[in-house]
Design brief:
Layout: H1 6-21, H2 23-42, H3 49-62, H4 65-74, H5 95-106
Helix pairs in contact: 1-2, 1-3, 2-3, 2-5, 3-5, 4-5
Amino acid sequence: MSNQPMWQQQCDAARRIQDRFGTPRALTYVVGEKFFNMVRALESDRRLAPDVDDFATELRTIFTPGDLREYFRKARARRHPGKPTDDLRYLPEEALFVAHMKQLLLSPRA
């Protein structure tokens, strides 16, 4: 078992997915599923905030701002987890989580 945090292992997996299957699939896996779930969990457990910030920082090293903007542009109004598609769809009630994800991944950093 690795001593790395789960989010780091997920970023490592995203790099492998990106190399093998391309950026859209890697984004769907790590941003659309793993990061989304962590941001959603943050609502009930604020102790996750440092890990969420570190996860976002690492994601910005894997993907370009253009990749991330394009991912969110393609994200649709409804989310269907587990479907083999490159653009995840989000439910209307998930819009706040998606907005928080965008802020974490696309806002300029000091």
